[in-house]
Design a protein that fits this description.
heterodimer; A: mainly alpha; MetI-like fold; 80% helix; B: alpha/beta; Rossmann fold; six-stranded mixed sheet; 35% helix
């Protein structure tokens, strides 16, 4: 068990180091001069040289990499070129928005997918199964941004139940929640379509095993068998997909935040790319990578909790 | 009163359509089978794979309904009961399966699994769990382990402990020793016989292996292609098989080392 934890933690850190190298290399080897971007085409050579010196672009690549990593470890990602404030400040202002969206989206996904998947499995081959699986097939086929637009048209434009976009700030909690409902639903529906199908097939696999019949023979009700025996045993593939989906949800916020005009990291990365704000883009790409790698790390640890057989082997 | 009465049981399964029009063909897995099991009796059903014995077991457990015929448990038609009534009756007839590796929930400690039928009845009785463990030759301390920590024979003991904890009147064993080594088979068969003596269990024992069935059963039903071939006291059938199929099963059993 201890050995397993150490091995996974070492792997986790090694992945993060590899990611930081790739992110830094891609950003810095790409053609384009940040100084030129900032000062514009009319800048004098002297001014450009001065700014390059100022930004530390004249230092060797390796020194700049270690400088960046050292800064990042203490939460200092440098100064944003376009916003003229520290990148860490930009991120911390927007992190809450993106994390809330992703976590709410994940919870809603789990709620929908587990109930629908287990329901479909319990009605295997019957009408309920066919209908839910047909709808989930549609859900997989629909892109999130298009679904967002449809949701806005229906619930904001026609019915006027919810705001079409924008964010009033956390100081107005009720209004803030209301403005996050549509984005959360848009994020979750597509993901839950995928997860519901995984849940269904995984549950069917478990239901074919003898211990489900044993449970039935013991006089347990169908519902108790489904929630006590089938779902827990079906969890390993479900958790695998959930880990990947959390990553997809976090990156999915880039699109959703732009559609709904929400001040989160997704919008920030969009703006920074448009402004060629290198330190901000670099920090954000690294941050998204950290979230994805961490999600996978957590999934690895969850396996052990879910399956006692893995605990014995680990 | 007889424990279990099967009367003219028939079960058909639909097959994939071969023609666009007309009825889908079907397979008759069990055809017109009748038998009776008395309290404390060991009743053997023997036949090769595909002879309909497992279908018979599933119908006797009320996992699926016969297309024709009735199954009475102590005079009650189990397929006519509604779901809650059937669940209330289930503690009286329990089942053990062929594969001791998949018949226990791998995520649950075996003590939890053994006590589950009691919990389904709304009873919590740790002493009965311990008693059940002892009855099958295991220790109560084993309850803290997971199924993968046991051997096949031990797992089958656990499955039996779970089945007898509700103090059933009938135990259905579907190929309960087929997946085990021969030496372990004998241990499990002895255990079943001991339990039958001490608890007065009726046993419906299903096997493809006539040698196994012959060693423990009072009454015998030989099946082939879903049809009953011979039915009567085991001694008579084994000494005087009236059917060539039974004779071939006997020869096959006798050829074994």
């Amino acid at each position: 068990m201890m050995y397993f934890l150490i091995r996974r933690t070492v792997g986790f850190i090694a992945t993060l180091i590899a990611v930081s190298i790739v992110v830094f290399a891609v950003m810095n080897i790409l053609p384009g001069d940040p100084a030129l971007t900032i000062l514009g085409m009319d800048a004098t050579d002297d001014a450009l040289a001065a700014l390059r010196e100022d930004l530390g672009l004249n230092e060797p690549l390796l020194a700049r990499y270690f400088g960046w990593v050292a800064g990042a470890l203490t939460g200092d990602f440098g100064l944003s070129h376009s916003f003229r404030v520290p990148v860490s400040e930009l991120i911390s202002e927007r992190l809450a928005m993106t994390i809330s969206l992703a976590v709410a989206g994940m919870l809603l996904t789990l709620l929908i997918a587990l109930s629908v998947g287990i329901y479909a499995a319990s009605r295997h081959g019957k009408a309920g199964d066919w209908v839910t699986m047909f709808i989930s097939q549609l859900g997989i086929a629909v892109p999130a941004f298009w679904l967002s637009i449809l949701l806005v048209l229906l619930f904001a434009v026609n019915l006027r139940w919810l705001p079409p976009g924008g964010f009033p700030g956390w100081s107005e909690p009720v209004a803030a929640m209301r403005s996050l409902i549509l984005p959360t639903v848009a994020l979750a529906l597509v993901q839950s379509a995928v997860l519901a199908r995984v849940t269904r097939s995984s549950a069917l696999e478990v239901m074919r095993q003898d211990f489900t019949r044993t449970a039935r023979a013991s006089g347990l009700s169908q519902r108790r068998i489904l929630w006590r025996h089938v779902l827990p045993n079906a969890l390993v593939p479900i958790v695998t997909i959930v880990g990947m989906q959390f990553a997809a949800l976090v990156t999915g916020t880039i699109v959703i935040e732009n559609v709904f005009y929400l001040p989160g990291l997704g919008r920030l990365i969009f703006q920074s790319i448009a402004n060629r704000d290198l330190p901000t883009v670099q920090a954000l790409v690294m941050l998204f990578a950290i979230i994805v790698v961490t999600a996978n790390f957590v999934v690895d640890l969850l396996y052990v909790l879910i399956d006692p057989r893995l605990k014995a082997r680990a | 009163m007889t424990l279990l009465t099967a009367h003219n049981l028939t079960r058909r399964y639909p097959l994939p359509r071969t023609k666009l029009l007309g009825k889908a063909p079907f397979l008759t897995a069990v055809s017109n089978v009748s038998f009776e099991i008395n309290p404390g009796e060991t009743f053997g059903v023997v036949g090769e794979s595909g002879s309909g014995k497992s279908t018979l077991a599933r119908m006797a457990m009320a996992f699926e309904a016969p297309d024709d015929g009735t199954i009475l448990f102590e005079g009650q038609d189990i397929h006519a009961l509604n779901a809650p009534d059937l669940r209330r009756l289930r503690p009286d007839f329990q089942m053990i399966f062929q594969d001791p590796f998949s018949s226990l929930d791998p995520r649950r400690k075996v003590g939890w699994s053994i006590a589950e039928p009691l919990r389904a009845m709304g009873i919590t009785a740790p002493d009965r769990v311990a008693e059940s463990f002892e009855q099958v030759g295991l220790h109560a301390a084993d309850g803290d382990k997971y199924p993968h920590e046991f051997s096949g024979g031990q797992r089958q003991r656990i499955a039996i402990a779970r089945a007898i904890i509700t103090r059933p009147k009938l135990l259905i064993a579907d190929e309960a020793v087929s997946a085990l080594d021969v030496s372990v088979q004998a241990q499990i068969l002895n255990l079943l016989m001991d339990l039958q003596d001490s608890l007065g269990l009726g046993i419906l024992f299903i096997s493809h292996d006539l040698a196994v069935v012959a060693s423990i059963c009072d009454t015998l039903l030989v099946m082939q292609h879903g049809k009953p071939l011979e039915y009567g006291p085991a001694v008579d059938i084994l000494q005087n098989p009236s059917h060539t199929y039974t004779r071939s099963l006997l020869t096959a059993a006798g050829d074994k080392p």
